[in-house]
Amino acid sequence: MVLDSAHLLKLLGKRVRRLRMQQNMSLQSLSLEALLSRRFLVEIEAGRANPSISKLASLAHSLGITLRSLCDLPVHTIPYNRICLLGIRGAGKSTLGPKLAAQIGVGFQELDDAIENKAGMPTREIFEIEGRDGFLKREADAVEDWLRENDSGVLALPGSIVNHNFAYERLLSTCTTVWLSASADTHFERVIAQGDTRPLEGGHSNAMKHLDGLLKDRTVAYECADLTVDTSTKSIEHCLQQITSFLSERQQVED
Question: Does residue 106 lie in a domain region?
Fold first, then answer.
């Protein structure tokens, strides 16, 4: 099924916002560069405006990309049951993921596991031996492998995936994305409860400062997800209900 105009405009808005943040541009600076009002740019990023081709061309130029790249949006409905879970460690991806997959009758996979299994070594060693570029290539390959092999499923993503522009764009345009949001305190408590004492090595205050920094740096990218679920104060059952209700609405659109 071809996406309707409302869905396409939402996808366009997410792309504009994502590209703007990659360029470290404020709304004001992009509006001035593209000769668009700040209010109109806000409406574009929110998916509520339908800009003309000339305004899109101006936006593309200001963002340093071609008009074709800006408008290269998926024209078919994104599968409601091919789901990617976003969030930093302790958000609840490994807990909610298998339960969600079982509830909707699909498989579950963690991208980190797929990367490590194919490489035959843990992530830490991949970085030591192949460097960041080597890991990013393996991450992109793992994303493509999963997309090729899974028309449906639940994929738990590493928190840093949002920093990998190409891989993250692919997932946003081919999957239903869910950001499992939580406070820095909640992330910290859950990681410690899992038996990982590394955050304590630099002291509690430094660990909290690091978590706060990660959340601030990645929030804008995480907000590109189709759905945000706050796991800090809600039960697992409530979170699952929120996600499955959203998926049901998506399924009705596809049908």
Answer: yes
